[in-house]
Amino acid sequence: MEFKSPIAKVSLGDLVHQRMITALLSGQFRGGEDLNEVALAAQFQVSRTPVREALRRLEAEGLVVNLVNRQATVIEMSRTDVIETYQVRQILESAAARWAAEQLDAEQLLELRALANAAAPPPGGQWGANERRFDGELHRKVAESCGNGRLCKEIVKNTNLVRFVRSRVGLNLERLAQGHTEHLRILAALEARDAERASAEMSAHIASALQFVLEDLPLP
Length: 220
Hints:
Strand content: under 5%
CATH architecture of the largest domain: Up-down Bundle
Helix content: 55-70%
Number of strands: 3
Oligomer: single chain
Structural class: mainly alpha
CATH superfamily of the largest domain: GntR ligand-binding domain-like
Number of helices: 9
CATH topology of the largest domain: Four Helix Bundle (Hemerythrin (Met), subunit A)
Strand order of the largest sheet: 1-3-2
CATH class of the largest domain: Mainly Alpha
């Protein structure tokens, strides 16, 4: 059997980084919690070198701070931090939606429409999980199809901060249903190849999400 592309090699630093991302975004570490290299190396059964590499990357991505003469610490986000994170997201993703409306191909749009149909209310069974899948794929495809690699990378970086915030917010079916309606509006604009409407709908969706987070999280 002949493979057209080589299998990507993954370093120990990459693996530890991914596991740390998962732990941070699932709420396993609290904001402000110290991250001890020795303890993490023992937990992941690796040396301290890949742990240190992973922590440096997390610091560059904004999820960890490394204070002078102190070990790495999980970020703590104030109300201002959350607002600014979502404002950046609004700028980045509304621009991406404008360009993606002209570049998403028919197959990608059909895939998104299938996910949208599977996520349709009324709530029940796997509805919540299906909506979250539709949510993730919509935002991912918009970012990857915008035609600007640097913009896509910045969206990914910012998305991890947004996911960190959302991991502190409980599941709310009312917000999930509202988000689904907003996602459908974005998808309809993308299907119509209406760049300005896609951008406006994405911007409105992110503003709505921020309002929900601010109402739900007790932030200083």
